[in-house]
Amino acid sequence: MILIINLFDKYKFQIIEICLIFLCQTTKGLKMKKIVLLGLCLIINVTYGSTPTESKINIENVYVPQGYDSNDNVEIVVEGYLPNLCHKSPKVKVDKISNKINLTLTSLYYTNDNYFCPPAVVPFLITVDLGVLNTGEYLIENNNHQKKLNVAKAISENVDNFIYANIEYLEKNYQEQSVVKLKGYNVSDCFELDRVELSTNKSDTVIILPIMKQVREFCPRKMTPFEYEVEVPKMVGRKKVLLHVRTMNGKSVNKLLVNH
Q: Is the separation of the CB atoms in 206 and 169 below 8 Å?
């Protein structure tokens, strides 16, 4: 049985080709033997042509926003590329040992001799949730990168020091490269935008804090769409800059800005 399976695996595409030729030659009056053979061909194709394995892929860059406290949900962002369309579903594994955080990037890899595997490179961003970290300096490591993350001591018991806007996504302004639109919904009309604070990690990330203020005590549920324009600072010498926006739910919205 093992020998038969190995032969199927080795010659599966030749078998599929024979099946396709057979399918083209069959007529409406299919006999039972032909139906069984056709079904066997389809089973071989599905079984041996679509079973993925987990494969390591390279991390292009790790973006480390600063400004987190010891009661915040800390997030970093990993940039990478799927080398071709045989790679799917990238994910990041996190190993925390004391103050060292090791990242491993993998994808589901479908065999390289798949007929349906164009050599197209697919870029992606993954927001990595590190959870709540103690006060201190952390070293984020992988095979190609090593960056520092600083977590300050919290000055309040709240998850965030401020209430942030309920941002859903960012939209680039293609006429003005330095301007982006923050779009989302206010959960109630008792909140209004107070100000937007901007800072950088002095490397490759702009941190955007859209701070809200409560204008009255009664807050009925009333989803109100909003759009805020923000001019982001230019980071000289950086082709790509991450825009990291903190949001009302304690998470973040992230987008790469490519400088032309």
A: no
CB 65 within 8 A of CB 148: no
- At 51, the pLDDT band (50, 70, 90 cuts) reads confident
Q: Give the least confident one: 89-98, 142-151, 181-190, 203-212.
A: 142-151
Decide if 166 contacts 252 (C-beta within 8 A): no
Whole-number Å distance between alpha carbons of 165 and 183: 9
Q: Given CA atoms 226, 240, 160, 67 in this order, what sign does their dihedral have?
A: negative
The answer to whether the CB of 54 falls within 8 A of the CB of 106 is: yes
Cα 204 → chain centroid: 18
Phi, psi of 245 (to 5 degrees): -110, 125
**Is residue 183 within 8 Å of 171, Cβ to Cβ?**
yes
28 CB-near residues (< 8 Å, 6+ apart): none
pLDDT, residue 94, reads 96
Q: For the whole model, what pTM was predicted?
A: 0.77
